[in-house]
Amino acid sequence: MSELGTKIPELRAVGGKVFKGETIEGSMPQRRLPIVAGFFLLLITVLGIDHVIRSGYFTIQKVVIDPPLAVIDQGSIERETWRKISGNYLNVDLKTIETALENQPGVYQAVVRRVWPDTLSISAIETQVIAEYRQLDRSEEKVERQFINLPPQNDFSFRPLLRGPERYQAVVVDTFHEIFSLLAIVNLEPQSLSVGHSGQWELELRRSDLKSQNRFRVYLGRDQIVEKIERFVFSFKTVLSHKADLISKVDMRYDNGFAVQWHDDLEDKKFQIASVIKDDN
Question: How many CB atoms neighbour CB 85 within 10 A?
């Protein structure tokens, strides 16, 4: 019996079934083998891709502008593109190049595409509508000049001046876009739009359909800027358009009206005008 007992293998219960002990122990290395092989295959693939990307292969050889530019100097766009290229054909950051090109005066939108095997193709929407943005420091002094490319469908005979602190730049540009179309209804051109560190907005306007170069300022306060412009436009069309040459200042910081100062008001008095109510019916 003892001799027979030595030949009986150890039995173990696994998952409700009885298996020989040596069968379970022998299957574990076989299960690990595919996992280890897969890990080494993935590692070799990653290293191979990294080698290709970091090597001198797939270098960019050409920059093509298609279609050709009508107004902007094509050479300046090509030079700016080459300056912003970092890496090769496979890993070059196209968004960085597009942003850099759209910061160039006259480029409203740029799209950069890869063309196999070594070319970058650039298409750009040109605009001749450019605003100047002057960034103010804490003392309200002009410290930096930038240029903002505005949508080409806007038709300006002038270069608008936008002013404000750095944190207001995007808001000023967006607000300018909104009020421009409103002011065009009554043939008024926004010569400048400003906001100070205190949040006070100010607008300078000129009548575009008159020979006179008279400009006047509109004080807008801190909030509801677009709504105040809408109210001003309707009131201007109704009661002020025939006196545009005489206007010196308009104060829209009233809840239910506005005040006008005329050029011939030597005593610097303001004439209060009740706001005209617009009937939408």
Answer: 18
Q: What's the token pair of residue 3?
A: 């001799």
Q: Is residue 185 part of a domain?
A: yes
Has this prediction a pTM greater than 0.85? no
Residue 69 is assigned to a structural domain of this protein: yes
Residue 100: inside a domain, yes or no?
Answer: yes
In the chain the beta strands, taken as DSSP E runs, fall at: 11-14, 17-20, 62-65, 107-115, 119-126, 130-136, 142-149, 161-164, 188-195, 201-207, 215-221, 247-251, 257-262, 271-274
Residues 134 and 248 in one domain: yes
**Per-residue confidence (pLDDT) for residue 264, from 0 to 100:** 76
The verdict on 141 and 93 lying in the same domain is: no
- Residue 23 is assigned to a structural domain of this protein: no
Structural domain range at position 260: 130-274
- CATH code (residue 66): 3.10.20.310
Query: Is the omega angle on the peptide bond into residue 165 within 30 degrees of 0, that is, cis?
Result: no
- Considering only CA atoms, which of 281, 164, 183, 159 is closest in space to residue 237? 183
Residues 155 and 254 in one domain: yes
Residue 249 is encoded by which pair of tokens? 């200042």
pLDDT tens-digit series, residues 8-31: 455 455 455 544 544 545 556 666
Q: Which residue has the higher pLDDT, 161 or 39?
A: 161
| Distances, alpha carbon 101 to alpha carbons 88, 112, 122, 150, 162, in Å | 19, 10, 10, 14, 21
Are residues 156 and 232 part of one domain? yes
Q: What does the pLDDT average to over 141-157? A: 76
Q: Whole-angstrom Cα distance, residue 178 to residue 192?
A: 14
